[in-house]
Design brief:
This protein is α/β, with parallel strands linked by helices. The chain has helices spanning about 10-20, 25-30, 35-50, 65-90, 110-120, 125-130, 135-150, 165-195, 210-225, 235-245, 290-295, 310-315, 335-340, 350-360, 390-405; strands at about 55-60, 60-65, 155-160, 160-165, 200-205, 230-235, 250-255, 265-280, 300, 330, 345-350, 365, 375-380.
Length: about 425
């Protein structure tokens, strides 16, 4: 699923921003070298689009309304992201007064901005163009017109067609971040108006703890019934890329930020641990303590190589002369449960993910003493993210639910917690 908000006229948005900073239409018109009627019309257009007034007009000036202040904060972040990206690409460092880059609205239109974002979605351009009612050719023409205005190559020409280069991908990522600020700005206005038509996009990892996430989502929807919540499941590096590109707002699950990912932050919500799982009535459930040699003779269902859970499964048999073949590989929880319930297959799961099935009496935790990994679970967000009130409410629901669940004890900030590999 691809979603990208419409981008208003960038010149109009800049006029609104400058009025907010300078406190008047006449000041803004002088600052931007344009007429007062043009500035007044720009404000009217933006206010008509969002459906609420941004400014209050009085004899002493033009001042933002309460919702206008929040809207202007998002517009500031929108332009800060775009202007910083432009300065980076044009090689004009901050503080170089004699080398100030042109304003972004003088180089790119909203149509070109959207076109660059879409044409950098490699392998999906035709699909997205069709959903937007456009042709891929028209999107590439628009993106390349921006390329010419910028004076920087954004695409490499290949036999398969234009492929975004490093600069193109960088600008597309920053443009996508900026557009997300516009989406949140509109959402906050709608929330204030009582329509609450804001969408939260939550990335969730396998074995994150679907029972906790479902309960937190249920509580949130009770308080914000008209707000949309989209849950996106995926493997860690795919979701991390989506987070960096502002396709999702947060990741819920195991905290495993790589050292190079310096643009994201993590919040620990609870600790979790691994446990061995089989169906009720499985022969291994009758043992007082299950050992690696006991497990070696059974078929396993495992996730893909390189994941923390797969690494831990392989470690179980590192010193064993006989090892399972690991012929069943899937990360689908539905498939894992079906295999466990209808065969003697075993696997490794997190206690938080297993909670509901154990309570229902359909799966059983095997008695095992050698699993001592402690997993930190929580949320990962962009370091520069400014959540809306709805996002904060959702996070509060997650904190409340996971705090009460206490799967393996709340993390002690002063303790030495050994992470799973």
């Amino acid at each position: 699923m691809f979603h990208l908000a419409d981008v208003p006229n960038l010149r109009h948005l800049r006029m609104v921003q400058v009025i907010g900073k300078l406190g008047g239409v006449s000041c803004a018109s002088r600052e931007l070298s344009t007429s007062q009627p043009a500035v007044t019309q720009a404000v009217a257009n933006i206010e008509a689009e969002i459906g609420l007034p941004i400014f209050e007009r009085c004899a002493t000036g033009t001042y933002p309304t309460t919702i206008g202040k929040q809207f202007l904060l998002r517009i500031d972040r929108f332009f800060d992201t775009l202007d910083t990206a432009l300065a980076q690409v044009l090689g004009r460092p901050d503080g170089a007064a004699d080398r100030i880059p042109p304003r972004i609205e003088r180089l790119v239109t909203g149509t070109q901005l959207r076109a660059l974002i879409v044409t950098c979605e490699q392998g999906r351009v035709s699909e997205i163009a069709d959903s937007l009612g456009l042709s891929p050719a028209s999107l590439f023409r628009s993106a390349r017109s921006f390329e010419r205005a910028l004076g920087k190559q954004l695409f490499d020409r290949t036999a398969q067609g234009p492929i975004p280069n490093r600069t193109g991908n960088y600008l597309a990522r920053e443009f996508r971040r900026a557009v997300r600020e516009l989406e949140l700005a509109r959402g906050e206005v709608l929330l204030a108006a009582g329509t609450e038509s804001l969408e939260l996009v939550i990335g969730t990892l396998p074995m994150a703890g679907s029972h906790d996430l479902a309960e937190a989502t249920r509580r949130f929807m009770s308080a914000y019934p008209s707000t949309k919540v989209r849950l996106v499941t995926g493997e860690y590096h795919k979701l991390l890329n989506d987070l960096s590109n502002s396709r999702i707002d947060m990741i819920f699950g195991m905290l495993r930020r790589p050292e190079w990912a310096d643009d994201v932050s993590e919040e620990v919500l609870f600790t979790d641990n691994y446990c061995l799982v089989a169906r009720v009535g499985h022969a291994l459930t009758r043992l007082e303590d299950v050992t690696p040699s006991d497990l070696a003779g059974y078929e396993w269902v495992v996730p893909q190589k390189g994941t923390p859970r797969r690494n831990r499964i392989e470690q179980i048999f590192a010193d064993e002369p006989v090892r399972p073949k690991f012929h069943l590989e899937t990360s689908s929880l539905t498939m894992i449960r079906s295999l466990l319930l209808n065969s003697d297959t075993v696997t490794l799961m997190t206690r938080s993910e297993l909670q509901n099935d154990v309570e229902l009496g359909v799966l059983k935790v095997l008695p095992c003493r050698f699993l001592d990994n402690v997993l930190l679970k929580g949320v990962t967000t962009r370091s520069d993210w400014l959540p809306t009130a709805a996002h904060n409410a959702f996070l509060d629901c997650l904190r409340e639910v996971t705090g009460k669940a206490n799967h393996a004890g709340k993390p002690d900030s002063g303790s030495d917690i050994r992470m799973a590999s």
